[in-house]
Each structure stands twice: as structure tokens, then as C-alpha cells.
Amino acid sequence: MMVMSNRIYLDNSATTPVASDVLHAMMPYFRDHPGNASSLHASGRSARSAVEGARQQVAEGLSVDSREIVFTSGATEADNLALLGTALRSTSGGHIITSKIEHDAVLHASQWLAARGYDVTALDVDEFGRVSADSVREALRPDTLLVSIMAGNNEIGTLQPIREIGELCREHGVLFHTDAVQAIGKVDLPMDVIDLLSASAHKFHGPKGVGFLFVRRGVKLTPMQHGGGHEGGRRSGTENVPGIVGLGAAIQLALQEREAVVDRMLGFRTRLIEEVLKLPGTRLNGHLTESLPHIANFSFQAIEGESLIMKLDEHDIAASTGSACSSPNLEPSHVLVALGVPLSMAHGSLRISTGRQTSNEDIDALLDALPIVVEELRAFSPFKVGG
Amino acid sequence: MYTEKVIEHFREPHNRGKMEDYSAIGKVGNIVCGDVMWLYIKVEKDNADRDIITDISWETFGCTAAIATSSMVSDLGKGKTLEEAIDVTNQDVASELGGLPPVKMHCSALAADALNEAIYAYMTEHGMEIPEALQKRHAHIAKEMAQLEERYAAFSGKDGEKPRGCET
Fold first, then answer.
1. How many domains does chain A have?
2. Architecture of B4-158 per CATH?
3. Active-site residue numbers of A?
């Protein structure tokens, strides 16, 4: 079934459209260069050269060595490989530190380990969603195997003090992993204090189904996927050649145009915050300044988030919510709950996330539609604003 | 994920908003789990001295499905006698909407429950004999609300917000 797409796409934290240059780079590897990168013949060699070229692009983008890049099917796999891969090297259990507002890939992987005898500390965050380096310091134990704290939050955009946390881990000889899915290409990453870093191509205008884990030289992982020993034995499975080529092209593009794109995004975010907070019964979830440039998360009193998304959809606008109405247990977003957002507001969240293609007109359209749909939904809500 | 019918009722919900001169009100749901529905009924005698629900309206805080089911239950209940309206089930609401996604079935439960609770409130207030089926439904709804509040006690304790349950 083919359904039309929204005219105005403001859900770039969920995924982004593939950039034309990226698509163009990928195309030959679907058909004209069909080889398996492990094959000896010319087609195989061409695929291998493309994969290694992309690895070089990623490595250069991060200023690391290309041997430190392990291609995966995306960030969920990279997160799992980082957590499980380091934890399972210990035969006697151990301790892992993470935060309450991690992405489910880290949260659920750490819970999986907790169910198997590992100790997991999930650190609290402040009202803006910040983990403090001091709380990491206090949680460290002699048997701590890994600290995993995301670079920037996917729901609310809050940046974590990962340099401080990374330095702390270095001091104590503990591995530090960061999920940089939303942060990559948007903010500087302190690669000198990071041991493991996850990313996914489709968050920066690359294709879906491909990502990577940066693994600092000398860091040993137990592989999660066993087979032909690809990726230096760290991740078996035939390389997704067009995907990997797309990832390389996308990261290169993101870094080339970063300054201009981030500038635009910051402008959009400032304007969104100014305008949305003029509406009664609204709040900004996250940090005013210590934030990723492309994410702004708001709560609307007396309104449930999914309805808000569906009403915006009527206006041809795609946005999203952190609200859990789509999940069977109905609890509000674990991120907003960790921030201490009142329940009446935690259900009514709206995440606006911009991309390289976002225009002023897109933001205009959202700001035109928003007061209308908010009013429409509040008109029949049993809860009143300001009460 | 939603049927065209659900989207249609969500876009232009029927009988929405507060009623001033209502005869009874049914309040169900819980802010903690994210769906709250208040359903108002206006009950009047017809020529044959039967109690007819002549008007229904509602106020709902909830997702797309919660709003669409509110709209649908108001259509289904309107014009029926109290006895007929008691028989409106969750299944009726869902099937009239062409079905709901499995995780959203709780929304249709909420809609029929709200109608039941409004009828229960009306009959209680007017000293009418309450049919056994309605009695049972009311007890069941009250029990579910209590379980919900217990389950989410940790949440509600956290920000000092008392869950607003069904106040009957």
C-alpha cells in the first residue's frame, strides 16, 4: 500500500531523507558492482575497495584510525555489541553504569545483562536531563566494566558532559561507551576519551540499516554475531556494500556542511522555543542551551501527545511524541518521567526535529498549525489549562 | 494502523465538549495511564414513559483511538433507552469503527465504560432498580480503576498528583 508522505517533515530524529549525493554514491553498488567484498575477482575487489573507502571516510570524519571502525546494521546493533561485547568478556559478572534516559537499545541491553547477574547502575538526571560527572564518580566500583552515557538525548536533545565523564573513566581505567546517534555531525565529540561510540547512517541523511561502532584500538569485544569473521572478527556477515558506501558519503557530507546546517538548526530551535512557549500551558522539555541543535521537545497541558501528532498530520506536518500511548503498558516516556515532568504534561509531549532540508517555511507552517490544533484538542479535554 | 473510520471520527468527532444541563456523568480513566473520559448524558421521558438518552456529549484526554471511540459511543448511545444503552459493549464500539489496533483496545473499553458509568450514576440518583448486568459492570470498572491506581501508585506519588479515577 502506497501512502503519501507529509509535505512538511519535522521528524528528523526518527529518520532523515537520504541526501541526493548519498543516493548517487550508493546506486552503482546495487547492480553495476554486485560483488561480495570478500570475493577475489574484480567485482569483489571493487566492493572491497568501496567498503574500505567508506571506512576511511568515517575514520577521517572522527579523526580516528580506520581499523577502529566496525560496520554494523545500525546503532541498535552497535549499542548491543558495545554493552554485551564488553560485559561478556568478564566471566565473573561485573558492574555497568548507565543513565535513566538512554535509548532503549542501551537501556534494554543493560537490563538483559542485569537479568544475567551483572550489576547495573542507571544514574538519575537533573530536571534538564543532565547526568553529572560527579554521580558517575560516586557510582564507580572496582568491578565496573563499562560506563555508557549517550552524547545527546534523542527525545529532548540534552547534551551530556561526555568529555568530563570520559576523562573520569580514563582516570579510573574503565571503558567509556557513548551512543552518539543524534550527536554525530552536530556537535564535537571528544574522541580522545571515548573507547566505544555508536552511530547510525539514517540519522544523518544516509540509508537505513547501516551504522558503525567505533572501537578504540586495544579494546577487546566478544563478538555477538558469529560466522565468516568479517570486520576483523568483531562482526561477521557479508558487508552491506551499498549501505556502507552511503554511510561513508553521508558522514562526509554531514561534516562538510556542518557549520551551515547547524547554524540554521539553531535558528529554527530558538524560534520554535520563543513561539511555542508563548502559547498557554506549555513547557520546554530539555535544556535551553546545552542541547543538540536539531531537537526541541515541548509539553502541552491537557492534551495527549498522539492526538497532537495526528492533528498535525492533518495539516500535512510530520512530527513525533515521546509519549507511550503506542506501547501496551501506557507509561509516559521514561525520559520525561526521569526529568520529573508532571504526569499531566508527560503524556502531552511533542518533539520537533529538523534536518538539512528543513526550511523557514516548514517552521512557519508548524507555527501556524500548532495553536489551531492545540486549541481544537483542548476544547474537549476534561482538564483545563492553568488549573 | 488506524481504519479510515477511526480517522474520520478523530478528525470531526461527534458530540464533543461539555454539556451544561446533563442528567448524569460517567468519569473513567486515569491521568497516569494517559486516557481520561468524562461522558455526559441527558435523560428524558418519552410519550411511553420510557427513559431515553436524548443527548450525549463528552470530554476526553487521550490518543486518537480514545477520541474516536468517544465520538462513536456517543453516536451509539444517543436515542436509546437506558436499558438499550446498557447493552452497548466495547466490542460494538470497536467494530463500528472497523476495528482498533490491539494495543488500543483499552480505549474502546474506556468508551463503553463511561457510558455504563453515566447510566449507573443516573439510575442510582433516581432510585431506580439497577439491572444485574450493569451492577456487575460497575463493580468490574471500579475494581479495574483500583488496580490501575495501585499499579501506578509509584508514578502518582512521585509528583504528588493523585490519579483521577472514576468518581462514582
1. 2
2. Alpha-Beta Complex (3.90)
3. 325
Residues A327 and A188 in one domain: no
Alpha-carbon distance of A86 to A219, in angstroms, equals 9
For residue A73, give the DSSP letter: S
A42, three cell numbers? 574484480
Q: B158 and chain A: CB distance < 8 Å anywhere?
A: yes
B7: which chain A residues are within 8 Å (Cβ-Cβ)? 310
- Residues of B within 8 A of A323 (CB-CB) are 34
* Global confidence as pTM: 0.92
Q: Which of A310, A344, A380 sits opposite B16 (nearest CB)?
A: A380
Which of B17, B62, B159 comes nearest A340 by C-beta?
A: B159
Q: Cell digits for B62?
A: 487521550
Residue A197 belongs to a domain: yes
**Which has the closest alpha carbon to B107: B120, B88, B94?**
B94
> Tens digit of pLDDT for each residue in B59-74?
999 989 999 999 999 9
Is B163 in contact with B32 (CB distance < 8 Å)? yes
* Span A182-195, pLDDT tens digits: 999 999 999 999 99
Question: Is this complex scored with an ipTM above 0.90?
Answer: no
Q: Is B84 exposed, middle or buried (0-12, 13-18, 19+ CB in 10 A)?
A: middle
Domain of residue A302, residue span: 258-378
The strand pair at A119-123 and A95-99 is best described as parallel
